[in-house]
Write a structure and sequence with these properties.
This protein has 13 helices and 10 strands. It is an alpha/beta fold and 351 residues long. The protein folds into 2 domains: 1-128, no CATH class; 129-351, Rossmann fold, CATH 3.40.50. The strands form 2 sheets. Strands 1-2-4-3-5-6-8-10 form an 8-stranded mixed β-sheet, with helices on both faces. It has a two-stranded antiparallel ribbon with strand order 7-9. Strand 1 (131-134) and strand 2 (139-143) form a beta hairpin. Helix 5 (81-99) packs antiparallel against helix 6 (108-126) and helix 10 crosses helix 11. Mean pLDDT is 92; it is low at 58-76.
Length: 351
C-alpha cells in the first residue's frame, strides 16, 4: 500500500463523509498513485450495486392494529426504509466517485459524471423536494425547504466539487436553510467541458438569479473561499459569508509543482494557469466585503505560495478569524471545531 498517499487523503475522505474503516479497506490495495482512482471507483460501484439491491423492497407492515399502524408510520421517514437505504448508498457512491477524481486518470471525467448522477439520484430519494438547477456556467442541487427563509450557496475549490461537501450542506439543512451546492467552471460535473475562470463572481451572480431569492449566504472552501469572498465583496445580495481554507493571494512562482500542475490541468494550459493565478488576490476587494464574514483556517495548512485567510480577516470590515490548532487543509481532521460555528454563522447571520 502506498501509505503516504493514502494517509494524505485520509482527512479529506473522512471530512467528505467516508467512514474511516471503509476508507482503509478500500485503499488497502493502493500501491501506486495509478491505483487510487480505480480503487475509489470500485468502492463507488459497490455502493451503487448495494443501492440497486434495495430497489423494489417494500416497507415493513407496521402491524394489524390501526392505532399501532399509525404510530409506527409516524416513526418512519417520508420515504420507505428501502428508499432511504438506496438513497444513502447512492450518496456514498457519489462521494467515492468524487474521490476518484482527486488523482487524475484516463477516466477522470467519467468519475466526475458518476458522482454527479449518483448524488442527484440519492437526493431525489432522500429529499423529494430537492431539484437540479443548471445555468450556462453552473449546475447543482438545491436542497432544503421550498419556503426556507435562508438560502446558502456552497462553493467548492480547485479540484473539489459539490459532492465533497454533503456533510456541510447537511448541517445547513438541519438548521432550516435551503442549500445550493454548486459546480462552476472547471469543477466537478463541468470539469470536462470548462476551465477555471476569473469571472467566477459573475457565475455566482447567475446562481442567485436562478435561485430567485433576494439575498443569500455563501460559503467557499479552498479556492472556493476566494471565489466566495470575491463575490461577497461585489454582490450586495450576499449578506453573510464564510471561507474555509480559502487563499487570500496566490504567488505562482512559489507554488509547489503539484499545485501548479493542478491549476494547469484545470485552466487548460500553463499560460492560462499563470494568468489565472495572478488574479487570485483579494487585496483590492477585501475592504469592500461589508457583510459578516467568518474566516476559518487550519493552523497546519501551509502551502508555499498561498497566503491564508488571516489577511482577509484583518482587512474585511466585519470579519472574524477562527484558526484551528492542528487543522489541515479543509480542516477535515477536526470538523467539530468549525463546522457547527460556520453553519450557525451562515444561518443566523441572514436577515
Amino acid at each position: 500500500m502506498n501509505a503516504e498517499l493514502v494517509e494524505s487523503m485520509f482527512s479529506r475522505a473522512t471530512g467528505a463523509g467516508i467512514d474511516p474503516h471503509a476508507y482503509r479497506r478500500a485503499c488497502a490495495a493502493v500501491a501506486t498513485p495509478a491505483d487510487w482512482a480505480p480503487a475509489c471507483a470500485a468502492a463507488a460501484l459497490r455502493f451503487r450495486v448495494a443501492a440497486e439491491q434495495h430497489r423494489g423492497v417494500t416497507q415493513p407492515h407496521p402491524g394489524p392494529d390501526r392505532a399501532d399502524r399509525g404510530s409506527a408510520a409516524a416513526r418512519y421517514p417520508t420515504a420507505p426504509p428501502s428508499s432511504v437505504t438506496r438513497g444513502e448508498n447512492l450518496l456514498m457512491a457519489a462521494r467515492w466517485a468524487h474521490l476518484a477524481t482527486l488523482i487524475p486518470d484516463s477516466d477522470h471525467h467519467v468519475h466526475a459524471a458518476a458522482a454527479d448522477s449518483a448524488a442527484e439520484a440519492g437526493f431525489s430519494l432522500l429529499e423529494p423536494d430537492s431539484r437540479r438547477i443548471t445555468g450556462r456556467d453552473f449546475t447543482g442541487i438545491r436542497r432544503g425547504p421550498a419556503d426556507a427563509a435562508r438560502t446558502v450557496i456552497v462553493v467548492p475549490g480547485l479540484d473539489s466539487s459539490k459532492d465533497e461537501f454533503h456533510v456541510l450542506a447537511d448541517a445547513l439543512v438541519r438548521r432550516g436553510a435551503a442549500v445550493f451546492a454548486m459546480d462552476g467552471p472547471g469543477q466537478g460535473a463541468l470539469a470536462a467541458t470548462s476551465t477555471v475562470t476569473t469571472a467566477y463572481p459573475v457565475v455566482i451572480g447567475g446562481v442567485i438569479d436562478a435561485l430567485g431569492v433576494a439575498e443569500v449566504g455563501i460559503v467557499g472552501l479552498s479556492l472556493g473561499g476566494y471565489y466566495a469572498a470575491a463575490a461577497a465583496a461585489l454582490d450586495p445580495r450576499i449578506t453573510v459569508a464564510a471561507t474555509v481554507s480559502g487563499p487570500f493571494r496566490l504567488d505562482w512562482p512559489a507554488l509547489p509543482d503539484p499545485v501548479g500542475d493542478l491549476i494547469t490541468r484545470r485552466a487548460g494550459s500553463r499560460e492560462a494557469a499563470e494568468a489565472f493565478a495572478s488574479t487570485v488576490d483579494l487585496t483590492p476587494l477585501a475592504p469592500a466585503l461589508h457583510c459578516p464574514l467568518l474566516v476559518v483556517d487550519g493552523a497546519d495548512d501551509a502551502i508555499p505560495g498561498v497566503t491564508d485567510g488571516a489577511l482577509l480577516a484583518r482587512t474585511a470590515p466585519r470579519a472574524h478569524y477562527l484558526r484551528i490548532p492542528g487543522g489541515d487543509h479543509l480542516v477535515g481532521n477536526n470538523r467539530p471545531a468549525w463546522l457547527p460555528t460556520v453553519a450557525d454563522h451562515l444561518t443566523e447571520g441572514i436577515s
